[in-house]
Amino acid sequence: MPREDVTKVVLPESELPTAWYNILPDLPGEPLPPLHPGTMQPVGPEDLAPLFPEALIMQEVSSERWIDIPGPVLDIYKQWRPSPLYRARRLEQSLGLTGKQRLYYKWEGVSPAGSHKPNTAVPQAYYNKQAGIRKLTTETGAGQWGSALSYACATFDLECLVFMVKVSYEHKPYRRVMMQTWGANVHASPSNETQAGRNILEKNPESTGSLGIAISEAVEIAAQNADTSYALGSVLNHVCTHQTIIGLEAKRQMEAFEDVPDVVIGCVGGGSNYAGISYPFAMDVLEGNAKTRFLAVEPEACPTLTRGIYAYDFGDTAGTTPLMPMYTLGHDFVPPPVHAGGLRYHGDAPSLCGLVKAGMYEARAYMQTPVFEAALQFSRAEGFLPAPEPSHAIKGAIDEALAAREADEERVILFNMCGHGHFDMSAYDAFLSGTLVDFPLADDALDASLQSLPPQPAPA
Amino acid sequence: MPREDVTKVVLPESELPTAWYNILPDLPGEPLPPLHPGTMQPVGPEDLAPLFPEALIMQEVSSERWIDIPGPVLDIYKQWRPSPLYRARRLEQSLGLTGKQRLYYKWEGVSPAGSHKPNTAVPQAYYNKQAGIRKLTTETGAGQWGSALSYACATFDLECLVFMVKVSYEHKPYRRVMMQTWGANVHASPSNETQAGRNILEKNPESTGSLGIAISEAVEIAAQNADTSYALGSVLNHVCTHQTIIGLEAKRQMEAFEDVPDVVIGCVGGGSNYAGISYPFAMDVLEGNAKTRFLAVEPEACPTLTRGIYAYDFGDTAGTTPLMPMYTLGHDFVPPPVHAGGLRYHGDAPSLCGLVKAGMYEARAYMQTPVFEAALQFSRAEGFLPAPEPSHAIKGAIDEALAAREADEERVILFNMCGHGHFDMSAYDAFLSGTLVDFPLADDALDASLQSLPPQPAPA
């Protein structure tokens, strides 16, 4: 039986994990490499060299299970890590559970930027600094990733250039100010700083931008300047690997609670926070040592895993990246403006998609109204205000608990609270005032966006 | 020598202090009781009974040094307590310090409401619930206290009615939404809910409100309804006592660092966060077991301790509370709109003022521009974004460190980071864009507001 005298487990710094877990060598089936869209041949390290430093490229394709975390990265992690893991006892009570179904959550909102994103922003900044890079560029939509990279760059004394989608730049000024406080240079995208931006503005001076355009701008600057790299906040393997610090800590903390999760839940946009909490538990399943279930939760408005198809597709909207094997809605897909901006992505991390494809990971989609109902129930019970993204995981966890109660089954549920909602209060306002709108995805709209899939490689 | 291998100390829940420290019996000199403004006689418990439950009234006048923290309050404290204590090593580096001057900070921004305020909101809600009270009323300006009480009421299933100064209600909508998310009922003050509000609106329908008016509205509702109490977020003794959980934890954490603070620093508005971190250290000095210095930091725009006079004055602007012995700028004083809304109070906690009067506590005032410079330096080094209020403490700590370096003296400095600035980014924006304005207080303006002091009691 689990320990009932503990609210949260906070590990001492001495128990901070010192290596990340790389799931690549453990994935079921043959690895599917990213392909060059021109040649349809596997992309090699040399193709990525203009954008990323060698250390990160090596991690991207590494077959080593464990990757040592550099000392200077551990030093920065200690500003907020190990992050706490809670037993959601008050949420259980508010659901009328009596201990047979138990809820636990990992709380990543304690980082300076308020989410899990610094777990990878910090090592990315570190490896770039080591490689002699002077400046990092990136794009940001809602602002979580741009904030995390701005913080990481301040930490390792790098310049940071953020292209922020213009509509967000105008509607979320406080995220912009946060980045500037850490010293970043923030441009509304499309901007006049790049050829890509100028081309868009020439055609449409009133363009409000898109993540695809912002990526093009950030990549252009990095590709043209030897002292500048590009940084990506999700999807890629090295990003998912860095995030496994979450799950590695969570395993030790669940042991301290003397409990074992039956199901591990997280929200999925590009996949990095859910990869982070779940891969260390998946390792045990892949080794045959556990029978944990895995549940990825996404918005009905952007149902990549539940309604997308498994195919090679571009990572970006503009169609300039390598082709990646993943569940996708088509790279042309324009997600409706749900408040969970971090979940509005047409694809998902290839490693995660492989686990869904293999039948090991389940996926579920929700409309945003029941998600905000879950967020409200959580915040009144547990206090913390979740961001819209992890509120999807909360909804999934609540439904799992209620289903187990219905079936009179014991079920231990662990979910990832990947960030706070302090910069998302307008979404709560919309929910509380009854103006929140749901965006079901029509079949014909999905069919249309799937037309954007590129030609697929011939079967091997 | 201090431990150099530790970034932060996070105590396990098992080391959470189980009693608060009440400084009243240890204060130097004869205690000066609050006086009834009509009779000029000491106020008795019966005068406070219409507003507060008996348990809190007893704590207000208690001569017991230690007050046990009830189990249900400890259970809620464990949602975020013990809070971490950091060695600000990266800030030291950015200041060019080499270890002879050492900076430590206690981080209260990890609470659900984002500040130290829940340390007292939670026990206040608990004691009211125990007394059969159904609803709490309060006022809030910037919103920190209203948020904390809303959270506490959600926790103990009490109704919460918050009168929010209208200008803040309109300019800080996200603080309002935060309170509503926790289920509070929030009115812009002056409101039509009370006679006090209606009187103001009749004279001036466009009134933007004031903290004084909001207090009058909250007190009116509590005084008229037997099932309703009023809750105050600072100044009173029971509030300062609840906050000593901060300093009690900090003492154990400094021991874990194997270091001893030479000076303890905090910002002062009503005084509760600084009382909280400093009184447990002051206890040792009062007992003759330590020689710690104490430095209270306030805004030049509202320089209660540095330019106010020590006298009996009303706690509120409207002149309806008991008279309290304190440093005051006169209860008519209208502080200019500095961003540190929590420091805009004409008086200070009587216990804290007594320690300043006795020469044991020092005080210093700063303009807000150098305070935001310090906030920026802190956030770029340590990551976390401080609220404008604790940024005053940061500025004080930096100046102490630099003065000690100048004198080539060893100095160990502990300061309280009492809350995050996630809802204050407009202030950072003003600073970064060069539009921040300072508000020096002219002598004649101070002389005018001191005219509002009531007749003083005859010397004993």
Molecular structure report:
Two copies of one chain form a homodimer. The first copy, chain A, is α/β, with parallel strands linked by helices. Chain A has a domain at 8-15 and 71-114 and 238-450: Rossmann fold. Helices cover 40% and strands 17% of the residues of chain A. Chain A is built from 18 helices and 15 strands. In chain A, strands 1-4-5-15-10-11-14 form a seven-stranded mixed sheet, with helices on both faces. Chain A has a four-stranded parallel sheet with strand order 8-7-6-9, sandwiched between helices. A two-stranded antiparallel ribbon of chain A has the order 2-3. In chain A, strand 12 (309-314) and strand 13 form a beta hairpin. Chain A is globular. The relative contact order of chain A is 0.15. The model of chain A has no long low-confidence stretch (mean pLDDT 95).
